[in-house]
């Protein structure tokens, strides 16, 4: 079946490539403007996007600004098969889903992400604080499919690479200063400057303060009258960011780069709302608050803060026979969050997260050319270690459930990636990686004052109150592929990858409990195993109409084994291996230049996940979007304008997948319209107006089954606790560049 699908796809793409090649020969000259070449580093080498035999979506600084991509989640609005949201109640804790693969509870520090986030080449191990602001960013690349033979950690879904703007030795002083104001009392001020340090070094310093009072309200409800007695604003921001980058050409063959960043956000809470019953009056009367951005809450809404520090030091050595790169990195994070878990004014469930951790990593790469430059080779070693303390308190009607874990782990890997030119047009790609992972958990969980671990386990104290768990995993990842250049503007490829994601321990285990997914009682303290994917991809990359048009397409098929899924059982997160699944999909991305200064970008994706006939994938089946831009030069400067539209199909929620009675699932489809217009004067001064969600669409980014539904309606998934998404926001920006 798999071979037939791939064969059919290859045949179709080959026919398409031949047709496009013929059209290129006959294409008339339309004009002088051509598409800008997009340079990416998806294969650890600087290459044109059109020459890379893998599906990649890329954004540069101007595209991020013009498409109003203010934080990491905004890139999903112009990227196929990508869905990014926040963890329940925490606006800075990110959940990334790519091609149907997801870490669906990012607050669990023993569960690795299926999509790796890399910041200046450094793998970000934990999601807390990873919803980064798109400030002074040079590029963002989204790599689709399992990663392992090129990148630090093995991931099954893909990777997101974020690179900041760096200084360049020998360049003059450059920089900018600016600010913005907008609705919800939002304002920010920011600046960056690069300057030389002698002839061989340069330093860049960038900083920002970003603040808004919040766009949602948590309501205090009088239980006797049902009247609103007080309200607190939520979903605000109070963040500071400071970054420094130093580049030093120490010798003719050695470049040293240092990056350091400090980020804090003291207003990082997010409202959750029961979609059906969020206002409680005695004895058991519930109503819904009509305003989408308001909800009854007994905990005063949501509170949160996050602090991150990230440092990395890179050595680039260019020897005559090969190149060498070494990346040393350290990251610290501190995360606190409180939210009203049941999403109502009823005093039922409140959760407080208190977690902090740090990670260290070392990566060494060697690369070069061999066999008359026919072989482009890369080999490397990678080491990663982390420690984290996770203390979570859930109050269930005033009775405490305590999750207390001391988490540690390390990963060691060796890898190689080879590209061999069989002919001038045909290339063979191969890579292999060996990984050893170790994870440890010292747990002291309590449920209503009682110990939760099985005292018969050799890893548990006789009273069942403390457990020390340790597990090891080792596996081999690989990739193999062929790509063929039909012409200077058309390339097709086919590849296969095998990837894994490590298992881990149950940070929030509470002993035996009933699993809705398995319809059986399970021990929620037992570890979960690694998951494995075997994915196939066939694609085509093309440019035509004399360089005015670009179209890239890919079909993928993923064979999923023992895929990891986080189920909320009672008030605990239980990670389990559900079994085998199949994921397939199609992705299209295109760009067209037309008229004088107009460009149109578009994308489309289709995704199908097959596991169980009752299972609703959390990923949207269809997703598409368009972005129209216009740029023109005038005597006094340049006008730039962009308007973007994206549509996301309905989708299942994270924990309500198996309930056929749930009238609120799947979550509804939604569409977003964003826009920005800018006047950049010759003097360096620029003024811009921007807007996000201009139609003020009301939609949700995720849902959890609510316990109010369980108590009052007899089914935990009839009602849902939702995370309202951002309403219409707009503002003005002023900047001076020098």
Model description:
The protein is mostly beta strands. It is built from three helices and 46 strands. The protein has a 22-stranded antiparallel beta barrel. A five-stranded mixed beta sheet has the order 3-9-10-7-8. The chain has a three-stranded antiparallel beta sheet with strand order 4-5-6, with no helix packed on it. The N terminus is likely disordered.
Number of helices: 3
Largest sheet: 22 strands, antiparallel, barrel
Strand content is over 45%
Euclidean distance between termini CA atoms: 59 Å
How many whole angstroms does the radius of gyration measure? 26 Å
DSSP E strands, number? 46
Helix content: under 10%
Structural class: mainly beta
Give the integer mean of the pLDDT values: 86
Shape: globular
Parts with pLDDT < 50 across at least 5 consecutive residues? 2-31, 653-664, 707-718
In short:
The chain is mainly β and 738 residues long.
Write the layout of secondary structure elements.
Elements: H1 2-26, E1 39-40, E2 47-48, E3 56-60, H2 61-66, E4 82-87, E5 90-98, E6 101-102, E7 115-119, E8 122-124, E9 137-144, E10 158-164, E11 174-182, E12 186-197, E13 201-212, E14 216-221, E15 228-234, E16 237-249, E17 254-265, E18 273-274, E19 279-281, E20 285-287, E21 294-296, E22 302-318, E23 323-339, E24 349-370, E25 375-396, E26 399-421, E27 426-443, E28 446-447, E29 450-451, E30 467-487, E31 490-501, E32 512-515, E33 520-523, E34 531-544, E35 549-561, E36 564-569, E37 572-577, E38 581-594, E39 598-610, E40 622-634, E41 637-648, E42 670-681, E43 685-692, E44 700-705, H3 707-713, E45 720-724, E46 729-737
Parallel strand pairs: 7-10, 14-21
Antiparallel strand pairs: 1-2, 3-9, 4-5, 5-6, 7-8, 9-10, 11-12, 11-46, 12-13, 13-16, 14-15, 16-17, 17-22, 18-45, 19-20, 22-23, 23-24, 24-25, 25-26, 26-27, 26-28, 27-30, 28-29, 30-31, 31-34, 32-33, 34-35, 35-38, 36-37, 38-39, 39-40, 40-41, 41-42, 42-43, 43-46, 44-45
